[in-house]
Specification:
The structure is a homodimer.
Chain A (H helix, E strand, L loop, with lengths): L8 H10 L6 H8 L3 H8 L7 H10 L4 H17 L14
Helix pairs in contact in A: 2-3, 4-5
Chain A binds a DNA duplex through helix 3.
DNA sequence: CAGACCGTAACCTATAACGTAACGGGTGTC
DNA sequence: GACACCCGTTACGTTATAGGTTACGGTCTG
Protein backbone atom coordinates (compact mmCIF):
# COMPACT_ATOMS: atom_id res chain seq x y z
CA UNK A 1 0.00 0.00 0.00
CA UNK A 2 2.80 2.41 0.87
CA UNK A 3 4.41 3.82 -2.21
CA UNK A 4 7.96 4.39 -1.11
CA UNK A 5 10.43 3.66 1.62
CA UNK A 6 9.45 5.49 4.80
CA UNK A 7 12.35 6.96 6.80
CA UNK A 8 13.62 5.18 9.88
CA UNK A 9 11.97 6.74 12.94
CA UNK A 10 15.38 7.26 14.52
CA UNK A 11 16.28 9.54 11.67
CA UNK A 12 13.13 11.57 12.24
CA UNK A 13 13.82 11.68 15.94
CA UNK A 14 17.26 13.06 15.36
CA UNK A 15 16.23 15.69 12.86
CA UNK A 16 13.05 16.83 14.55
CA UNK A 17 13.88 16.58 18.24
CA UNK A 18 17.51 16.09 19.12
CA UNK A 19 19.24 18.44 16.71
CA UNK A 20 16.76 21.34 16.88
CA UNK A 21 17.17 21.45 20.66
CA UNK A 22 20.92 21.09 20.43
CA UNK A 23 20.83 18.01 22.62
CA UNK A 24 23.64 15.50 22.85
CA UNK A 25 22.90 11.79 22.86
CA UNK A 26 24.03 11.66 26.45
CA UNK A 27 21.70 14.46 27.56
CA UNK A 28 18.72 13.09 25.68
CA UNK A 29 19.31 9.56 26.93
CA UNK A 30 19.48 10.82 30.50
CA UNK A 31 16.22 12.69 30.06
CA UNK A 32 14.54 9.68 28.51
CA UNK A 33 15.74 7.44 31.31
CA UNK A 34 17.62 5.02 29.06
CA UNK A 35 21.27 4.27 28.38
CA UNK A 36 23.29 6.24 25.85
CA UNK A 37 23.64 3.07 23.83
CA UNK A 38 19.89 2.48 23.61
CA UNK A 39 19.30 5.93 22.18
CA UNK A 40 22.37 5.75 19.97
CA UNK A 41 21.26 2.55 18.25
CA UNK A 42 17.85 4.06 17.56
CA UNK A 43 19.29 7.24 16.07
CA UNK A 44 21.52 5.16 13.82
CA UNK A 45 18.71 2.93 12.65
CA UNK A 46 20.16 -0.13 14.36
CA UNK A 47 17.06 -0.73 16.45
CA UNK A 48 13.45 0.30 16.34
CA UNK A 49 11.20 2.28 18.63
CA UNK A 50 9.57 0.00 21.18
CA UNK A 51 6.15 0.78 22.64
CA UNK A 52 7.78 1.79 25.90
CA UNK A 53 10.22 4.04 24.09
CA UNK A 54 7.32 5.66 22.27
CA UNK A 55 5.82 6.58 25.63
CA UNK A 56 9.15 7.95 26.82
CA UNK A 57 9.44 10.11 23.71
CA UNK A 58 5.91 11.36 24.15
CA UNK A 59 6.71 12.57 27.64
CA UNK A 60 10.11 14.06 26.90
CA UNK A 61 9.09 15.88 23.74
CA UNK A 62 5.46 16.54 24.54
CA UNK A 63 4.20 14.62 21.53
CA UNK A 64 1.85 11.69 21.02
CA UNK A 65 3.15 8.19 21.64
CA UNK A 66 0.93 6.99 18.81
CA UNK A 67 2.79 9.02 16.21
CA UNK A 68 6.11 7.47 17.18
CA UNK A 69 4.89 3.93 17.20
CA UNK A 70 2.97 4.42 13.97
CA UNK A 71 6.10 5.64 12.28
CA UNK A 72 7.84 2.48 13.42
CA UNK A 73 4.96 0.35 12.18
CA UNK A 74 5.02 1.97 8.76
CA UNK A 75 8.73 1.36 8.56
CA UNK A 76 8.51 -2.28 9.64
CA UNK A 77 5.57 -2.88 7.35
CA UNK A 78 7.34 -1.53 4.34
CA UNK A 79 10.21 -3.90 5.01
CA UNK A 80 7.79 -6.81 5.30
CA UNK A 81 5.91 -5.85 2.15
CA UNK A 82 9.14 -6.16 0.16
CA UNK A 83 8.93 -9.92 0.68
CA UNK A 84 5.22 -10.19 -0.04
CA UNK A 85 5.73 -12.50 -2.98
CA UNK A 86 8.05 -14.84 -1.12
CA UNK A 87 5.50 -15.81 1.53
CA UNK A 88 3.20 -18.26 -0.19
CA UNK A 89 -0.22 -17.42 1.14
CA UNK A 90 -3.50 -18.47 -0.43
CA UNK A 91 -6.65 -16.39 -0.60
CA UNK A 92 -9.13 -17.30 2.13
CA UNK A 93 -11.74 -14.55 1.98
CA UNK A 94 -14.91 -15.04 -0.01
CA UNK A 95 -14.11 -12.04 -2.17
CA UNK B 1 -4.35 9.17 24.61
CA UNK B 2 -6.42 6.03 24.20
CA UNK B 3 -9.34 5.94 26.55
CA UNK B 4 -9.86 2.26 27.11
CA UNK B 5 -8.33 -1.12 26.61
CA UNK B 6 -8.28 -2.00 22.92
CA UNK B 7 -9.06 -5.64 22.09
CA UNK B 8 -6.26 -8.03 21.27
CA UNK B 9 -5.91 -8.24 17.48
CA UNK B 10 -6.13 -12.01 17.67
CA UNK B 11 -9.61 -11.69 19.09
CA UNK B 12 -10.60 -9.44 16.20
CA UNK B 13 -9.06 -11.84 13.73
CA UNK B 14 -11.08 -14.70 15.12
CA UNK B 15 -14.37 -12.87 15.21
CA UNK B 16 -14.07 -11.03 11.92
CA UNK B 17 -12.25 -13.51 9.71
CA UNK B 18 -11.96 -17.03 10.99
CA UNK B 19 -15.40 -17.62 12.44
CA UNK B 20 -17.46 -15.85 9.73
CA UNK B 21 -15.84 -18.03 7.08
CA UNK B 22 -16.22 -21.15 9.18
CA UNK B 23 -12.50 -21.81 9.02
CA UNK B 24 -10.66 -24.09 11.38
CA UNK B 25 -7.32 -23.07 12.84
CA UNK B 26 -5.69 -25.77 10.76
CA UNK B 27 -7.22 -24.57 7.51
CA UNK B 28 -6.47 -20.92 8.15
CA UNK B 29 -2.90 -21.68 9.22
CA UNK B 30 -2.33 -23.65 6.06
CA UNK B 31 -3.66 -20.83 3.93
CA UNK B 32 -1.51 -18.31 5.76
CA UNK B 33 1.55 -20.46 5.34
CA UNK B 34 2.30 -20.76 9.06
CA UNK B 35 2.07 -23.55 11.62
CA UNK B 36 -1.15 -24.27 13.47
CA UNK B 37 0.57 -23.26 16.67
CA UNK B 38 1.59 -19.85 15.37
CA UNK B 39 -1.98 -19.00 14.48
CA UNK B 40 -3.34 -20.57 17.64
CA UNK B 41 -1.19 -18.43 19.93
CA UNK B 42 -2.30 -15.30 18.11
CA UNK B 43 -5.99 -16.18 18.33
CA UNK B 44 -5.59 -16.82 22.05
CA UNK B 45 -3.76 -13.58 22.68
CA UNK B 46 -0.53 -15.32 23.60
CA UNK B 47 1.45 -13.54 20.90
CA UNK B 48 1.05 -10.47 18.78
CA UNK B 49 0.75 -9.84 15.07
CA UNK B 50 4.18 -9.39 13.54
CA UNK B 51 4.73 -7.22 10.47
CA UNK B 52 5.15 -10.33 8.35
CA UNK B 53 1.96 -11.81 9.73
CA UNK B 54 0.14 -8.58 8.93
CA UNK B 55 1.16 -8.99 5.30
CA UNK B 56 0.01 -12.62 5.32
CA UNK B 57 -3.36 -11.62 6.71
CA UNK B 58 -3.71 -8.87 4.12
CA UNK B 59 -3.23 -11.38 1.32
CA UNK B 60 -5.40 -14.15 2.75
CA UNK B 61 -8.31 -11.94 3.73
CA UNK B 62 -7.94 -9.23 1.10
CA UNK B 63 -7.50 -6.48 3.66
CA UNK B 64 -4.82 -3.88 4.35
CA UNK B 65 -1.71 -4.93 6.20
CA UNK B 66 -1.66 -1.51 7.83
CA UNK B 67 -4.94 -2.09 9.63
CA UNK B 68 -3.64 -5.28 11.23
CA UNK B 69 -0.36 -3.85 12.36
CA UNK B 70 -2.02 -0.67 13.60
CA UNK B 71 -4.37 -2.71 15.74
CA UNK B 72 -1.36 -4.42 17.24
CA UNK B 73 0.36 -1.08 17.83
CA UNK B 74 -2.67 0.33 19.58
CA UNK B 75 -2.80 -2.74 21.78
CA UNK B 76 0.90 -2.65 22.65
CA UNK B 77 0.79 1.07 23.24
CA UNK B 78 -2.07 0.84 25.64
CA UNK B 79 -0.13 -1.72 27.65
CA UNK B 80 2.90 0.57 27.71
CA UNK B 81 0.86 3.62 28.68
CA UNK B 82 -0.28 1.82 31.81
CA UNK B 83 3.26 2.15 33.14
CA UNK B 84 3.73 5.75 32.05
CA UNK B 85 4.27 6.97 35.60
CA UNK B 86 6.84 4.32 36.43
CA UNK B 87 9.30 5.39 33.75
CA UNK B 88 11.00 8.48 35.11
CA UNK B 89 11.40 10.70 32.10
CA UNK B 90 12.09 14.42 32.23
CA UNK B 91 10.68 17.02 29.87
CA UNK B 92 13.15 17.94 27.12
CA UNK B 93 11.09 20.00 24.68
CA UNK B 94 11.05 23.79 24.90
CA UNK B 95 7.32 23.80 25.48
C1' DC C 1 -11.32 -50.26 18.71
C1' DA C 2 -8.34 -47.93 15.21
C1' DG C 3 -7.43 -44.22 12.64
C1' DA C 4 -7.94 -39.26 11.30
C1' DC C 5 -8.40 -34.68 12.47
C1' DC C 6 -8.54 -30.82 15.70
C1' DG C 7 -6.51 -27.35 19.09
C1' DT C 8 -3.08 -26.71 22.51
C1' DA C 9 1.19 -27.44 25.41
C1' DA C 10 6.18 -28.46 25.87
C1' DC C 11 10.60 -27.68 24.06
C1' DC C 12 13.99 -25.41 21.22
C1' DT C 13 15.85 -21.66 18.12
C1' DA C 14 16.44 -16.99 16.27
C1' DT C 15 15.89 -12.19 16.63
C1' DA C 16 15.92 -7.91 18.97
C1' DA C 17 15.70 -4.41 22.79
C1' DC C 18 18.15 -3.25 26.76
C1' DG C 19 21.97 -2.37 30.30
C1' DT C 20 26.91 -2.52 31.63
C1' DA C 21 31.39 -1.89 30.55
C1' DA C 22 35.09 -0.88 27.61
C1' DC C 23 37.02 1.55 23.72
C1' DG C 24 38.66 5.53 20.61
C1' DG C 25 38.32 10.36 19.57
C1' DG C 26 38.10 15.15 20.94
C1' DT C 27 39.01 19.14 24.04
C1' DG C 28 40.69 20.95 27.27
C1' DT C 29 44.12 22.21 31.48
C1' DC C 30 48.20 21.95 34.26
C1' DG D 1 53.22 16.28 26.63
C1' DA D 2 50.40 13.88 30.21
C1' DC D 3 46.25 13.70 32.46
C1' DA D 4 41.25 14.25 33.04
C1' DC D 5 36.83 14.65 31.11
C1' DC D 6 32.98 14.11 28.05
C1' DC D 7 31.23 12.31 23.78
C1' DG D 8 29.39 8.51 20.70
C1' DT D 9 29.94 3.74 19.54
C1' DT D 10 31.08 -1.25 20.00
C1' DA D 11 31.36 -5.79 22.47
C1' DC D 12 29.17 -8.85 25.48
C1' DG D 13 25.49 -10.86 28.28
C1' DT D 14 20.47 -10.95 29.60
C1' DT D 15 15.72 -11.19 28.68
C1' DA D 16 11.50 -11.36 25.95
C1' DT D 17 9.01 -13.06 22.09
C1' DA D 18 7.68 -14.92 17.36
C1' DG D 19 8.19 -19.11 15.11
C1' DG D 20 8.73 -24.30 13.96
C1' DT D 21 8.65 -29.20 15.44
C1' DT D 22 6.82 -32.55 18.08
C1' DA D 23 3.84 -34.68 21.33
C1' DC D 24 -0.45 -34.87 23.88
C1' DG D 25 -5.66 -35.13 24.98
C1' DG D 26 -10.18 -34.83 22.80
C1' DT D 27 -13.75 -35.88 19.35
C1' DC D 28 -15.38 -37.94 15.60
C1' DT D 29 -16.19 -41.93 12.08
C1' DG D 30 -15.52 -46.29 9.84
Amino acid sequence: MLMHNPPHPGEVLKELCIEPLGLTVTEAAKGLGVSRKTLSTILNGKSGISPEMAVRLSIAFNTSSESWLNQQSQYDLWQAEQHRKELHVTQLSAA
